[in-house]
Amino acid sequence: MKYLITGGAGYIGSTICSALKDAGHTPIILDSLVTGREEFTKDHIFYKTDIADSAAVEKVFKDHPDIQATIHCAALIVVPESVSMPYEYYKHNVSKSIEFFNTLQRLNHGRVVFSSSASLYDIVPGFMVTEEAPLHASSPYARTKLMMEMVLKDFCAAYKMKGIALRYFNSSSTKLIRALVAMLNAAALAAAPAEARPWQQGLALLFAFVLVLTIFLQAVVWQRGMLRALDQGRRKLALGLAQRRRLLGTLFHDVA
């Protein structure tokens, strides 16, 4: 089965392409290469174009009318840069994505997996989050992701699109991701009923990918909690040393 991967020349997008290919699917990459790397497109079907170029996107679907779903990863992703360059982030991540979603619904290719971000979540006790955890998009980058989640929800309601947003931190160990996705996909396909439609089988792969990312999310959140605890420990130690230095200074002054 074929899947369109926007931003497929990026880190996450290229990993998804590898996982899909390893599982026997055909990823089709659409990337402007503004931040992506052309070498990541090697051995894949690749269209160098912008997601807001509706004519170019339409050509992709004309060439491949059997695309089952779109995984939308194309975005600018550097948080500090989004603070200093908010216009570029709202333009690329929001304005262009809206045009892209509109092209998808117009072409009746409305099955979308949106690559969102766990940076939407507020800091909570224990640093463990669920989908019901409070949101606090604290950077322009995070706010672009939150906005596009709302846009996707509205498009699904108005235009009968089918979408899902995946919130995750940057994952590591891409080889492990590919291995786990391949195994989970094989198990899902083996368990699927014979009459299942092809796109439903493809979604089994996507939900397997969600599971893997969730595992990494838990690991990253735990690591963040440990780092925060260590930082608090260092702050308390520094405060204690400062108090001791002041006390010793007072004592020596009194002696003098």
Question: Could you characterize what this model shows?
Answer:
The chain has 256 residues and is α/β, with parallel strands linked by helices. Helix content is 57%, strand content 12%. Helix 1 (11-22) crosses helix 6, helix 4 (86-106) packs parallel to helix 5 and helix 6 packs antiparallel against helix 7 (198-255). It is globular, with a radius of gyration of 23 Å. The termini are far apart.
In whole angstroms, how far apart are the ends? 84 Å
Number of helices: 7
The number of strands is 6
Low-pLDDT runs? 247-256
Oligomeric status of the shown chains?
Answer: single chain
In what range is the share of β-strand residues? 5-15%
Helix- and strand-based class?
alpha/beta
What is the strand and helix layout of this fold?
Elements: E1 2-6, H1 11-22, E2 26-31, E3 45-48, H2 54-63, E4 67-72, H3 79-84, H4 86-106, E5 111-115, H5 140-159, E6 162-166, H6 174-191, H7 198-255
Parallel strand pairs: 1-2, 1-4, 2-3, 4-5, 5-6
Short description:
This protein is of the alpha/beta class and 256 residues long. It has 7 helices and 6 strands. The C terminus is likely disordered.
List keywords for this structure.
single chain, 256 residues, alpha/beta, 57% helix
